[in-house]
Amino acid sequence: MLFSDGSSFQSRLTVNSKLTTLALLALIGTSTSSLGATWQVELDGSGDFTDIQDAVDASAAGDTVLIGLGRFDTIRAVPGPSPGYFQYAIVGITQDDLTIIGSGRGVTIIGLEFQDSYYGIDYNGIGCLHGYECTIKNLTIEHVYCGVYWSFGGLELEGCDIKGEGPFFTGISALCDRGLSVVDCHFELTGPNTFGIINDSPNACSEIRHCRFVGGAPFSGRGLSSTILEDCTFESSRSGVSFTHRGTGFLRNCQFNDCGASSVLLRNQAHLQLNDCSIEGGEMGVVVADTSSLVGTSNVIANTTDIGLWIRSQSVVNLTNSHLLPVSGPAVKCSFFFDEPDIFQELTHNFWGTNNPAEIAAMIVDGNDDPSIHSFINFMPFAGQPVSTESMTWDGVKALFR
């Protein structure tokens, strides 16, 4: 049988078989390359490199860098995406889609042995200026100006310790438009003006789970960032968690112990969902200010010494099935509501430590105490005994951000 171009069925079958074989070979090659190469970094010279930066620079997208034991502390200028744009860092991420894995907390260490000003230059432990995505696991970052600095792209950090001293230190400074994930990390923040995580990531949902923060100011979500914090602890912090400038957040099953000025702060049209959290001690439990909003259930705000819940400046709160038990000062205070119409705050079905309505009213400062305050607390019906908690499912949490 001949075709119109003069070729036979057999010749066409042979050509098609060759094309199929070539396609399969190309597919196998693509599949193999997608696994990526693995590079070993060892200070004793037994690996592919002795410096992390050399391994990162030699990598291609999809590669993995394994880091051995010891301290890596060489600071260099790492080029950015455009001429004249660079950062000082111990590790600068110059390739997309990398995985960097240390040998363990306190075993693989990125940072100087002691805090050093490095001639007055700000420097990062790990930094990215290119908008890349990266996964970093199982290492310690310490004695740097900023632990991890990330400009756009996406970052996953897991199983890491980040330690910093004042007068200025930030554990993670992130502007990740493709998301930020921090899981099972420990932050030790010592001295004034130390911060755990500053999240400025626009239009991306970030997740911080199973993390422990000691000292400093643990978390700040700003701008259009949305952050879920779950199963985290905050201890002896200068202040706790803050959301500002329309930042949104969800806190679930978090514990705050003896945070300073406030455990939770909302300002400048921020919004927070607060469920199943415990706030113990500190001056103020929760501050909701500047037309912000708070919705929550099944929380405990106890042993505060100034104000348990402070609602300010046209803000709105709906907090139910919770405990409000200050050691001193009002349980709830409204202030700076200067304009009509009156704003009513929904605080029903809460336990106030008493079943006497007059005693509960005495724990509240609102428009009933000062006519110039155009905000009132609805606290009836109330719980005459401690209320039980009922956790929201994880799917329910994520649905809030869809």
- Based on secondary structure, the structural category is mainly beta
Order of neighbouring strands in the sheet with most strands: 4-5-8-11-14-17-20-23-26-29-32-35-37
* Basic shape: elongated
Mean pLDDT: 89
What do you see in this structure?
The protein has 402 residues and is mainly beta. It is built from 4 helices and 38 strands. The strands form 4 sheets. Strands 4-5-8-11-14-17-20-23-26-29-32-35-37 form a 13-stranded mixed sheet. Strands 1-2-6-9-12-15-18-21-24-27-30-33 form a 12-stranded parallel sheet, with helices on one face. Strands 3-7-10-13-16-19-22-25-28-31-34 form an 11-stranded parallel sheet, with no helix packed on it. β1, α2 (52-58) and β2 form a beta-alpha-beta unit. The chain is elongated, with a radius of gyration of 27 Å. The chain starts with 8 loop residues before the first helix and ends with a helix.
Tell me the layout of helices and strands.
Blueprint lengths: L8 H26 L3 E4 L10 H7 L5 E4 L2 E3 L3 E4 L6 E7 L5 E4 L6 E3 L13 E5 L4 E5 L2 E3 L3 E6 L2 E5 L2 E5 L3 E7 L4 E4 L2 E5 L3 E6 L5 E5 L2 E3 L2 E6 L3 E5 L2 E3 L5 E4 L3 E5 L2 E3 L4 E5 L4 E5 L2 E3 L3 E5 L4 E5 L2 E3 L4 E6 L3 E5 L2 E3 L6 E4 L7 E4 L10 H6 L1 E2 L9 E4 L15 H6 L3
Parallel strand pairs: 1-2, 2-6, 3-7, 5-8, 6-9, 7-10, 8-11, 9-12, 10-13, 11-14, 12-15, 13-16, 14-17, 15-18, 16-19, 17-20, 18-21, 19-22, 20-23, 21-24, 22-25, 23-26, 24-27, 25-28, 26-29, 27-30, 28-31, 29-32, 30-33, 31-34, 32-35, 35-37, 36-38
Antiparallel strand pairs: 4-5
